[in-house]
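We both want to read discrete structure tokens more fluently, so let's practise on a single case. Would you write everything just below, so we can both look at the same thing?
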Amino acid sequence: MLSTSCHRQRTAPPALFTARLAVVLPALLFAALLACSLLAPRAAWAQGAATPDAKRSADVAQVLFGIISYVRWPVNRPEVRVCKVGATRLDAAIVDTPASSAGQRIRVKIQSALGPVSECDVVYMGHLPDSEREQLLAQVIGKPILSVSEPGTACPVGTMFCLRLLDAQIGFDVNLDAIARSGLRVHPNALQIARRKGPQP
């Protein structure tokens, strides 16, 4: 009889534990669903907010590489060295690329505005303090170095191509005098890049 009584005492707690789980689990499940419903809109908003800049970065890279393909340096460049200078925002897609149909490879690096640009074939300029921009252009003007300013930044005198945001496409202003003084040869078809239509709805 004593052993039977002990057996009955041991079976009572699991029933109580099961009852507590029946109360706690629905509460935990509700809390988890509530957290997901609060976080999901924020994640969707962040993803949607990043899309326009990613699209513009791809467009900027396409126009820049298109311009480069129409440029000829006094000495043949099987590899074109692109230097990013200053605070850039739309340069995410400006990366190393393999040889194009023109036989040119693109190699990209970050360059200090105060450092020498003798190892740059192209200078892609973001936001810069006036003093640093002047020092940079002093090294570039009159040299066979293609200078391009990022959309939304200043277009200082002496810059060859100043990219612009034009609704659904990227356009640019061209300084023909700066190009002539540089010794670079730019095919007239390069000017057609700015006239391409934006994506159709």
Summary: Residues 44 and 50 are 10 Å apart (CA to CA).
